Every structure is written in structure tokens, then in C-alpha cells.
Amino acid sequence: MNENIQPIFILPEGTTRTTGKTAQRNNIMAAKLVAETVRTTLGPKGMDKMIVDSLGDVTITNDGVTILEEMKIEHPSAKMIVEVAKTQEHEVGDGTTTAVVLAGELLKKAEALLDMNVHPTVLARGYRLAAEKAQHILQNIAVPLSENDTETLKNLAETAMTGKGAEASKEKLSALVIQAVKQVMEKEQSKVMIDTNNIKIEKKVGGSVEDSELVQGIVLDKDRVHPQMPKKVQNAKIALIDSALEIKNTEIDAKIQITDPMQMQAFIDQEEKMLKHMVDKVVQSGATMVCCQKGIDDIAQHFLAKKGILAARRVKKSDMEALAQATGASIVTNLDDLSQQDLGTAGLVEETKVGNENMIFVRQCSNPKAVTLLIRGGTEHVVDEIKRAIDDAIGDVASALKNGKVVAGAGAPEIELARGLRLYADTLSGREQLAVRAFAEAVEIIPQTLAENAGLDPIDVMAELKAAHEKGQKWAGINVGTGKVMDAWKEGVIEPLKIKTQAVSSASEVAVMILRIDDVIAGSGSGKGMSMPPPGGMNMGE
To answer: I need a labelling partner for 92 at 20 to 30 A (CA). Which of 27, 102, 258, 523 fits?
Structure first.
């Protein structure tokens, strides 16, 4: 036998490969680190993160998904955890931190079982069973919500804002949020439809948070195109035009030869005549306000101003669509088609100075299906964080109305869920029982973290909570102010059921997925983040 056998390379040069236990450890480690990062922001006493990007832009927030997106995470399995937060943000709009912390904890508990030589597929099966059972338990403890239950809706919105930058003015803001969501809500055969994109959020620095308002219509971050135009139009008839009020340049290079100065004048006159014809079209339709998605020629501006028509140009497509929803106007692409039927109405259109910029307010629309929340605040960072809090509140109220079910917060549903899962685990035989038990313990991380962030002793708090739930107080939660057990429902800490069900399902899915990986093969190009931190990025690798 020849001893000098050449080693066989089946992977390209520079490929790193980790297998078996090491791969699992690394993946679990990365996921746990992500969860640890956002854990301190959970709950009303959660702290904020300040993230400075490579350009020096500062973000101050305690919104889970924002933190994870801004952090620019490189490690592949840590990225999977970030996806959980994104899904939660998409589906509900709130509870992103909860979902991530839960996913991290599920993996942490799994690690202990892996050390006891429980096979990953057994764990995965147990986690799936537990997640399924968890959905049933949550559905059973949830309380139905009707859209006329203003008190509960108010508590929902306020709970979403507690612990965020908007907390100081949560009463004012929650009222605005509920009004806005109810305004854009539509019903089809008793099915509630809410498109939260129809609630436009405009932020302007200046004033205080208390100056924020809900506009029954749309706020455009635009000026009038001509100073001679009226600043205010009562009972406006609004035309939405998706073509330019300009002379089109020919697509091909055309050469026009002019030999006589008179011809030059005729050419200019002809251009002017065409623009005047365009403006006449607008005037004939009876419009008193024009929003144009493209440009408006200087001469056309002059004619419009003479006719007393307020115009805005280069209006964003999304704003045009929102205006159509709010005013009932149709967006017209061909000017020759513009007729009275295409116009929308608004009680008042005015240009107002907000902070140091002009904005056009389209107000007093009758039953608008798109509205604007104008958010004010002392500095850029404050306004940004208020916007994130309002996004969460809108998501909560909308998903509670769509789903029609709510639960109390403050850690109460998690304790109840863990209790139900433990009873379920006892009915199972085999090793899956261990996995379901681990799942039950993992769920308890939420109330535990709430207690830790409030500076309380988690062990005492958890013992008291469990005792209360054993006595059948299903809404017993933590009062983070006093450190005692309270009836979360009576105290008005209320969340939509969808937050909990979505967090449980996405966290368990990603945990199962990561547990089933036993081999990480990283190509030389893509594996950079695994071993070498990128400049300015955050390395959560080895």
C-alpha cells in the first residue's frame, strides 16, 4: 500500500466547513446573541439602543426590528432570527422583540437537551407539537373584541406605546391612532378589512408631541408651484394628473431650422398656445386644485395662477393614490380626458408653514378612505421614535380589529401558555415530552425579562405569578411599577392575540430550522462575516 495518498478536495479552495455539534453550537450561539441584544428593550421599563451607522447617522430606538435592521448583522443564522422580527413587523406591526427573544430562548433550552444527547429531530418534532398546542391554548384564553369597545381599543393603543418614546403623550396619540384606523376600516360581509398603508404618517420637526394631529385627508410635503396662487381654497375640486403640463421634447433628435426672426416668434407663440390649451382643459373641468405627478412648465404655472388654481407638482405616486382614496378623485393620465367626473372634493385645501417648511393640507374630506397623521416633536430623533411607536400602535389596533380577539399583556398570557404546555407535556410519552417542557420554559422568558428590565427579582416574581395562575387568575401579570402581581386586564394592559400567535409560530419555526442544521459550508466569497468582521459592521460570528 502506498502511504502517500493525495488528499481529495471536493470543495473549492477557501471554503470553510463546520459540522455536527460545532455547527449547531455556533448557530445557536449566534441566535442567542441576537436575542440578548434586543432583550433589554422589552417591556415598559425596557431601555433604548443608540445605533450609529458608518456615515455617522444616529438612530435611537427600542423597536426590535429597527435595531436588528440597523445593526447590519452578518452571521447567517443570526440573519434568520432577524427575519423573524421582519415577519412579525409585517404581519402585526408590533411584538418584534418578543418574537426574537422567544426564538433565542427556544434555542437556548434546546441546547441543554442536545447536551443530554436528545436527537435534534426529536426536539424539532416536540417543538412543532408544542407550537401547535400553544396556538390552541392562546385561542382559548383570548377575549373577543368588538369595534365599538372604545375603552379596550384605547388600552390596546396605549399598551403598544408604553415604554417607547411616545409614552408621555400616549393618551393623545392613542386617540388619534384609533380614529385613523376606524376611518380607513372597511367591511365586506362582516369581514373587517384594514389597509394600514392608507394611514399616511408625515413627520415634521418642531413644536411638541402634543401638537400632533390627525388630518381627515392628506398632507403633502410640497409648496405651491407659483407665489401668485391662492394659499387657501375652500370646497376644493381636485384634479389628479399623471402627465406633465409641459411641452414634450421629441423622443428623437429633431432639428428645427429657423431662418427668419419672425418664425422664431411664431414658434414661441405656438408653444405658449399649446400650454394655454392644457391649462384651459383644467379650467374647463372646474378644478380649483391640481396635483401633478410630473412637472409643470413655468408658463403653465403662470396661467394656472391667473385662473386662481392652486397647483403642486412632482407629487409622489403613493401620495397621488392616497389623494384618490381620500378625495374620491380619479387619476387621469390623458389631459384631454379630464372631466368633471374625475374631480375629487375636499372642504379645505391650504398651504401652511409647519416648522420651517411649507406643506399643503388637503383637509375636511367627506368620509376619506385615506388619512394622514402629522407627527411633531422637538428633534429629528424624537419624531422618528414617535413614528415607530405609532406604527406599532396602528398595527396592534388594526390586527385586533381584523382578528377580533385580544389578550391581556404584562406576561400573563405567557405564564398561562407555559402552564397549559406543561400539562400537555405530561400526556406525552417518549422524549418529545422533554422538548415540549423545554418549550414551556422558553415561553416564560417573556415575563422573566419584563421583571429583569424593571429591576425586579425574576425568581420571586415568577413564583408569585405561577401561584396566581394556579389559583385560576388567568390575567395575573407583572406590575412593573410596584413589582407586585396585578390583574393585567383590569389595569388595561391589552394586546392583540395575533402578536402572541404570530410570535410563537415564527419563533418555533426558525428554532426548528436552526436545530436541524448540522453542517455549515461557507464559500470563500460569502463566508466573510463568519470569520472576519467587516469594517464598521458587527460580527456575531465565532
So the answer is: 27
Q: What is the pLDDT of residues 31-80, one digit of tens each?
A: 888 888 888 888 778 788 888 888 888 888 777 788 887 778 888 888 88
Q: Is 392 a catalytic residue?
A: yes
Cα 284 from Cα 279, distance rounded (Å): 9
- Same domain assignment for residues 233 and 331: yes
Q: What pLDDT sits at residue 541?
A: 46
Strand partners, 193: 186
CB 461 within 8 A of CB 472: no
Domain assignment present for residue 476? The answer is: no
CA distance 483 to 411: 13
* Percent residues over pLDDT 70 in the chain: 92
CA torsion sign for 166, 170, 175, 178 is positive
Catalytic residue among 297, 319, 392, 396: 392
Is 63 one of the annotated active-site residues of the chain? Answer: yes
Torsion of CA 57, 60, 63, 64, to 10 degrees: 60
| Annotated active-site residue in 37, 59, 66, 97 | 97
297 carries an active-site annotation: no
pLDDT of residue 13: 72
Q: Which residue from 363, 387, 385 is spatially nearest to 375, judged by alpha carbons?
A: 387
In a domain, 235, yes or no: yes
Residue 97 designated active-site: yes
| Bridge partner residues of 199 (DSSP) | 371
Query: Of 367, 391, 424, which one is at a domain's C-terminal end?
Result: 367
Residue appearing with cell numbers 416536540: 126
Catalytic site residue from 96, 152, 288, 327:
96
What is residue 3's predicted lDDT score, i.e. its pLDDT?
A: 63
* 281, 336 contact by CB (below 8 A): yes
CB neighbourhood size of 308 (10 A) = 12
The answer to whether position 34 is within a domain reads yes
Q: Which whole number is the average pLDDT over 386-395?
A: 82
Catalytic residue among 63, 94, 297, 384: 63
Q: Which residues span the domain enclosing 299?
A: 218-250+269-367
Reply yes or no on whether the pLDDT at 470 is more than 80. yes
Q: By three-state DSSP, how is residue 170 classified?
A: helix
Lowest mean pLDDT among 89-103, 303-317, 525-539: 525-539
pTM of the shown model: 0.74
- Amino acid 249: pLDDT: 64
Q: Distance between CA 490 and CA 471 in Å, rounded?
A: 17
